[in-house]
Amino acid sequence: MGQLTPALAGGAAASPPRRIDTGKVLSLGALLAPAVLLLAVGLLWPFLMMLRMSFLDRFPDPTGLTLEFYTAVLTDTYFLRIIGRTFALGLVVTAITAVVAYPVAWYLARSRSRWKHLVFLGVISPLMVSIIVRTIGWTIILGNEGFINAMLTSLGIIDTPLRLMQSFWSVVAGMVHILIPFMVLSIASVLGKIDPSYAEAATVMGANPVRTFLKVTLPLSVQGIAAGSVIVFCLTVGAYVTPVMLGRGQVNVLAVTIHEQMVVLVDWPTGAVVAMVLTAGTMVVLTLYGLFLRRHAQR
Amino acid sequence: MIKANPSDAVGVDLRDVQKWYGSVLAVRGVSLAIAPGEMVCLLGPSGCGKTTTLRMIAGLEKPDAGDIRIGDTLVNAVSPWKRNIGMVFQNYALFPHMTVHENVAFGLTMRNRPAGEIRAAVEDAMAQVRLAGYGDRRPSQLSGGQRQRVALARAIVTKPNVLLLDEPLAALDKKLREQMQVEIRQLQRAVGITTVFVTHDQEEALTLADRIVVMEEGQIVQIGSPADVYERPKSRFVSDFIGFTNAVGGKVVSVTGTTARIETASGHSLDIPGAEGVAAGDEVDLVVRPEKVAIDPPEGSGCVVVEGDLVHTVYSGAVTYFHVDIGRGAILIAMAPNAHGAASALPTSGARLRLGLTPDTVLVFPRRG
């Protein structure tokens, strides 16, 4: 860690000598160690086990490797429907969350009102309520004798109650509710960092508020929408409890199926294949999304 | 070449404009008439209301009282995007997600001009700020001076009625700032556009403006040409804010017509002509620019000679400042150009110096607070 001597500096003008600072490397290692260890033991190792399991002909006591279970899952309309439903749920929930969260995030990022912290508290409140309470809450609203059906019946709009529970949309409602905070906070953090003079410059140059938003503010906040979308999408396609509780067994998604295959049917390889499909599908969707954003965010 | 027909240029008129922020009156009744094609500078320390005034002309702030006219149009209720204004922000506010070309084209795109016309106008404006060929770059790939020029091109490409500049040079280093001062002035003259700019830098104001509007605590304290404001400041605040100033305390002994006889803290007696608003017995400050204090004046030159001991010398390249104790601790600073080189030839501390004051360069202001 000595000083660079003039002779050395002169001689190495084209490519400065690289020094490995052992102290820095050690402290970096020490800082990263807990996280690396946790990821290796808690994520990487089980993932590799699962990957291997998806190619085994049976488990336990495998006799060889096979693609049989992949072929079975990917040609069975039962599984294909679940795969489609899961990713549709992910996309729908992400889209709705983004649209609902943006104005709230805008308010949180721009407002100087003294009620702002109450709104913030309201935004994160779903995270403070247990899944059971939240589910019962939605049952009170969506159930056959629930608020919406009771109101529609009393107004004479419907005769028999609508089946709002146990449906795809009841799961959407529950997922949007719980995931809104992640989207709001992601977007608000980016919106808060955008210099207000960009929007002012656009305004002075003749852009009305709508065009200022579409041409300047929205493109500049795309990073926040992207970050929020990744979180919301991943949490949605991997969700287990909300689809089970609000779908009441009628809205089967991949996470539920994995549990069913492995724990109920004790068919480990099929469960592993479904898990791999979920992982791969999520990666494909996120990659496509990233490419889309890269192309359009710059315009 | 973007050039407004001189007869197209319009003026800006502010009448008793006020702006409150909560319970603070940030702008207290500003009235100002800016002639077509004129370049006016709002000068003052931070918090004096100059930026708020500029933003009210742009429409980014609404005045709470008073009228603002651009040309013959009362714009109080006109939205900023309908005012046809060009503005350069302190940090330039170039859109980071657009190319330089798209940035400059923005105003014309918002006016829904045909693509061919936009392309030609943008190239024209880019050439005018000497940045032809930079259209495909991103703002992040430009230097500070280049960003400044893009911001200027973007502001003038729409042929706005008024060009507003908010501390346009604050982000640049000294050398670049001086160069851009010249460029902005030339561009403004070439385009012939009515321009209002805001700065806290007195040198920038003196160099650039046709007229300087000095503001203090939300009010205009003096309006005048750069020479006016520098040579004949109306108050101690203006003289302090613009340029470097000597101030020596004193007391008015008698007033004859407009000539006041003043006994200075250093024990000298001076007759100052044109002293207004003072009466016998008043505590006053005598203010004089260092370059107006003659060093070792020839006999019979008509100035008042004071003598003192040199206590401090500040050599600053082109000129040297001599701090002279002219009696009872009162310091008078004289400035002289270093015409002869050889710093060793300068008088050293402790030397006795004769200084000459010409009475009509000395200003008298009532002592503040």
UniProtKB/TrEMBL annotation, chain A:
It is a multi-pass membrane protein. Coiled coil: none annotated. Pfam families: BPD_transp_1. GO terms for biological process: transmembrane transport. It is found in: Cell membrane. Residues 83-289 form the ABC transmembrane type-1 domain. SUPFAM superfamilies: MetI-like (SSF161098). One of its GO terms (cellular component) is plasma membrane. Belongs to the binding-protein-dependent transport system permease family. CysTW subfamily. PANTHER family: ABC TRANSPORTER PERMEASE PROTEIN (PTHR42929:SF5), INNER MEMBRANE ABC TRANSPORTER PERMEASE PROTEIN YDCU-RELATED-RELATED (PTHR42929). This is Putative spermidine/putrescine transport system permease protein.
Automatic annotation (TrEMBL), chain B:
Residues 12-242 form the ABC transporter domain. The keyword Translocase applies. It is an enzyme of class 7 (translocase). SMART domains: AAA. One of its GO terms (cellular component) is ATP-binding cassette (ABC) transporter complex. InterPro entries: AAA+_ATPase, ABC_SmlMolc_Importer, ABC_transporter-like_ATP-bd, ABC_transporter-like_CS, Mo/tungstate-bd_C_term_dom, NA-bd_OB-fold, P-loop_NTPase, PotA-like. It is a peripheral membrane protein. Keywords: ATP-binding, Cell membrane, Membrane, Nucleotide-binding, Translocase, Transport. One of its GO terms (molecular function) is ATP binding. Its EC number is 7.6.2.11. It is found in: Cell inner membrane. It comes from the Bacteria. It catalyses: ATP + H2O + polyamine-[polyamine-binding protein]Side 1 = ADP + phosphate + polyamineSide 2 + [polyamine-binding protein]Side 1. Belongs to the ABC transporter superfamily. Spermidine/putrescine importer (TC 3.A.1.11.1) family. NCBIfam families: potA. The complex is composed of two ATP-binding proteins (PotA), two transmembrane proteins (PotB and PotC) and a solute-binding protein (PotD). Part of the ABC transporter complex PotABCD involved in spermidine/putrescine import. Responsible for energy coupling to the transport system. This is Spermidine/putrescine import ATP-binding protein PotA. It comes from Enterovirga rhinocerotis. The lineage of its organism: Bacteria, Pseudomonadati, Pseudomonadota, Alphaproteobacteria, Hyphomicrobiales.
